[in-house]
């Protein structure tokens, strides 16, 4: 088939414009996620001051106590979706990515099925010098008339092929490398990219490359014959009705901008309902992707991070200070709710139970990581003693510390997660008793999960049929207050 016959079939035009709409969501929400910790690193320790680039004027004074939450930025809703919420930004990113990957797959399958790939994927090395010639033509403003190539010039061909077959897969793969559940089960996967933070940095560089492509692409579409180009990508031909094609093309762009603006406005106006809508969209994918993931992390002691960033300030009450003073002798962990044996464990009781240690990577939802050693009691040991009843579906971990609404900080996990390997109640960190800033006397470590689930300064664990009784009923303090997505069952 020759290119003149092939032209711009309807499926290319439709997937092109759907891609445009979805990329807007993906990029804007991605920028929102970056705003949560706008510093990029080449290694997974994230030592303050070692970032290779940052997008914030805040200075961290290592002499003063600080927590990661204070580094979170609100960026303008003109560039970030929705501008003020990491939780909703993540959910917009994930929801849009699902459809973006689907749209991309449909495009690629049809591209190969129809033979159209031959005009994108070069079949001869001569494309490289040819592309160089086109490049020098462009930069010296000797623009070839649109349509003088059939249909793409060599530079265009290379650029499109690189974006579709190199850049887009790279963004998908480096995105997946940032998942704590994936890294927990397959630590080698993030290492392919040089580590979790290198994957995050490459993901960002990929965004910059994508933005560069969009700017050049749009510029060339405009300057090399706007009417002909719009004719091709809107109506599939440029022989007639170019004015109509331009009007429709600009209309699609205006409509997309309106949709981004409207969804951003709604996310800011009704964050709770947006959280529920997006949660329902991403839940099937979340279920599929986290299916049967187990943490199997075994880092070496020499990989332990020199320091670990903090999140959440220690409880500021007289009672807690008294507990610290008394070496937590007066503290006990309560097990309550839907169990046959409600129980209570002092620190000495817990230390007398079977001990498990692990060296694992902590993933804060904001984007930073750190490797640490943890020691404590597997949660399965506690479960075997307290015997959850049939109706118990979640464990609610409740802290002595308060959340931003002044309620005890709490987070839930589906009960099956208690039996996963590397889910422990830790009283030891880096071979020392857990310190106050990191959660003394006891904190949760659930190593397939994000950091916010790992409640510090534990007071009690409540076995419940549903988490709706706690706080606003979204599954935990951070789901309630920051609109994070809840964890789905394994
Ligand atoms: N009680 C309580 N536990 C908490 C938090 C908190 O604010 N309060 N923050 C969570 C978050 S968001 C993270 S990333 C980790 C950080 O653990 P670290 O401070 O030991 O590094 O603790 C989690 N546990
Ligand atoms: Mo976090």
**What integer is the average pLDDT?**
95
What gyration radius follows from the Cα positions, in whole Å?
26 Å
Shape: elongated
- Please count the helical segments: 15
Number of strands: 12
How many strands, which pairing sense, and closed or not: the largest β-sheet? 5 strands, mixed
Sequence of strands across the biggest β-sheet = 4-3-12-7-8
Percentage of residues in DSSP E strands: 5-15%
List low-pLDDT spans.
Answer: none
H/E element order: HHEEHHHHHHHHHHEEHEEHEEEEEEH
Report how far apart the termini are: 49 Å
Q: Portion of residues in helices? A: 40-55%
Tell me which ligands are bound. the ligand Nc1nc2c(c(=O)[nH]1)N[C@H]1C(S)=C(S)[C@@H](COP(=O)(O)O)O[C@H]1N2, molybdenum atom
Q: Specify the structural class.
A: alpha+beta
List keywords for this structure.
490 residues, five-stranded mixed sheet, alpha+beta, 45% helix, binds molybdenum atom
């Amino acid at each position: 088939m020759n290119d003149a016959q092939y032209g711009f079939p309807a499926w290319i035009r439709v997937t092109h414009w759907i891609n445009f709409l979805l990329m807007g969501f993906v990029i804007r929400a991605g920028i929102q996620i970056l705003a949560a910790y706008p510093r990029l690193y080449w290694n997974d320790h994230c030592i303050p001051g070692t970032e290779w680039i940052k997008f914030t004027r805040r200075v961290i004074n290592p002499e003063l106590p600080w927590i990661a939450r204070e580094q979170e930025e609100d960026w303008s809703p003109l560039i970030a979706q929705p501008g003020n919420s990491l939780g909703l930004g993540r959910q917009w990113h994930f929801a849009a990515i699902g459809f973006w990957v689907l749209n991309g797959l449909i495009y690629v399958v049809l591209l190969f099925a129809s033979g159209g790939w031959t005009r994108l994927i070069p079949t001869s090395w001569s494309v490289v010098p040819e592309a160089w010639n086109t490049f020098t033509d462009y930069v010296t403003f000797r623009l070839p008339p649109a349509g003088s190539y059939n249909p793409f010039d060599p530079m265009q061909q290379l650029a499109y092929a690189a974006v579709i077959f190199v850049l887009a897969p790279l963004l998908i793969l480096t995105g997946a490398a940032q998942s704590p559940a994936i890294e927990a089960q397959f630590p080698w996967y993030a290492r392919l990219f040089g580590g979790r933070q290198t994957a995050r940095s490459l993901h960002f560089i990929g965004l910059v490359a994508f933005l560069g492509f969009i700017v050049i692409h749009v510029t060339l579409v405009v300057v090399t014959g706007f009417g002909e180009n719009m004719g091709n990508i809107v109506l599939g031909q440029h022989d007639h009705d170019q004015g109509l094609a331009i009007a429709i093309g600009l209309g699609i762009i205006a409509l997309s901008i309106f949709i981004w603006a409207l969804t951003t406005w709604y996310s800011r106006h009704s964050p709770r309902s947006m959280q529920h809508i997006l949660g329902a969209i991403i839940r099937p994918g979340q279920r599929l992707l986290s299916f049967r993931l187990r943490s199997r992390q075994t880092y070496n002691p020499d990989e332990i991070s020199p320091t670990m960033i903090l999140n959440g300030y220690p409880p500021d009450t007289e009672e807690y200070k008294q507990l610290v003073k008394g070496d937590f002798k007066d503290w006990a962990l309560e097990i309550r709710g839907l169990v046959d044996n409600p129980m209570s464990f002092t620190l000495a009781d817990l230390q007398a139970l079977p001990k498990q240690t692990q060296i694992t990577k902590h993933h804060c939802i904001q984007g930073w990581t750190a490797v640490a050693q943890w020691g404590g009691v597997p949660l399965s040991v506690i479960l075997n003693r307290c015997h959850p009843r049939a109706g118990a579906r979640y464990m609610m971990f409740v802290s002595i510390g308060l959340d931003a609404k002044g309620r005890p900080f709490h987070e839930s996990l589906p009960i099956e997660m208690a039996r996963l390997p590397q889910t422990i109640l830790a009283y030891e960190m880096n071979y020392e008793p857990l310190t106050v800033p990191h959660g003394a006397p006891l904190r949760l470590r659930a190593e397939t999960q994000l950091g916010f689930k790992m409640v510090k300064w534990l007071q009690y664990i409540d076995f419940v049929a549903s988490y709706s009784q706690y706080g606003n009923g979204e599954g935990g303090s951070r789901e309630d207050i920051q609109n994070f997505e809840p964890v789905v069952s394994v």
